[in-house]
Amino acid sequence: MTWLLLAAFVSAQECAAEPPTIPSNTSVVWVSHNGKHAGNNQYLWVTPTSEVTRWIGSQERATIGGLLRHLGLRKRKGEPKRRYKVVVFDADHATLCRPIESEAPGAIVGGLPVCEPAQARDNGPNNGCGWADARDGDGASLVRATWGDLSANGFCVLPATRFLDEAQ
Length: 168
Hints:
- It is a single chain.
- The chain is α+β, with helices and mostly antiparallel strands.
- The chain has helices spanning 2-14, 49-58, 64-70, 147-151, 160-167, and strands spanning 25-33, 43-48, 84-92, 108-109, 112-113, 143-146, 155-159.
- The protein is globular.
């Protein structure tokens, strides 16, 4: 019983910070290695573009490895051997949801509904509170949407190195 109370307390502490509000008209990024594809109904882990560019600007020298760690996609400190791409989507606010385990599906957190269990099934980089599980500092806020919903409004694919160079 004590263990359950402790686990509930730790979980509540992790989710103390509410993810930022996302404006109704926004762009989001999906970062993946070259060659990774998504099906039309596959849910992606995406982050607001403004948040990613703000993080890049705060770094003395942003690297792909650092970006991947910030997004919860890499644990190692070094640079990846694979090449990565950044897909920028013009997101429709109505298609996004927050992957937060401690809230009821449909509850509004930071201007977005909490994902239904089927939408948040793959925990991926999520810490359960709508944030990337980053090992070196604060992780990025995360939202979910399907490739089909995101791509309906258009998208742009850039090599991760070019995205970093343009954002610095």
